[in-house]
Amino acid sequence: MGYPDDQLARGEQVKLHSHPHWKEAVGPVLWFVVFLLIGAIAVYYTAGTDWSVKTWLILTEVVATIGLLVWLSVIPWIKWQTTHYVITDQRVMWRTGMVTRESRHIPLVRVNTVSYTQSISERIFGYGDLKIDSATDDGEIELTDVPKVDKVKAVIYQLAEDDRNRRAQAGDGT
Q1: Cβ(15)–Cβ(87) under 8 Å?
Q2: How many CB atoms lie within 10 A of CB 70?
Q3: Is the pLDDT of residue 150 over 90?
Q4: pLDDT value of residue 5
Q5: Quick one: which of 26, 30, 2, 28 has its CA closest to 15?
Q6: What's the pLDDT at 2?
Q7: pLDDT tier at 3 (50, 70, 90 boundaries)?
Q8: Which residues are CB-contacts of 147 (< 8 A; sequence separation ≥ 6)?
Q9: Count of other CB atoms within 10 angstroms of residue 90
């Protein structure tokens, strides 16, 4: 799914768009499978009994399974899918949320420093945390679990340099 065009300025082009690293989606998928199996097994064995409260017990098991599936699987999956890291030729954007949305933007002209951290396991799997310090009141923006973080850092620096050169040639001075 691409970044919505109505969020971009006139003439602005998306250079990079990603979500957090795929490892963020592994947990929700595993929880979904585990709790679906546990719930199905519990209902199967409860249905085979002669208890007088069997219906209520099965209903409780189904409700508990659905609750756990939503809490540990569906909500984290939606959070992962609705978190966007977007780099355009004019700014860096971070946006998350489907119902309640949070967003941060840093114009490339305001980017001071870009740094990243990676543990050994993050290096193996190819992701890390990116920090972008800006010359604005907002300070810094931290993007977590960015795929190919070293390449993203290089793209931001190159785009910031291109933006500075473009402004200098246009005599903008900012």
Answers
A1: yes
A2: 12
A3: yes
A4: 67
A5: 2
A6: 56
A7: low
A8: 18, 20, 21, 22, 126, 127
A9: 18
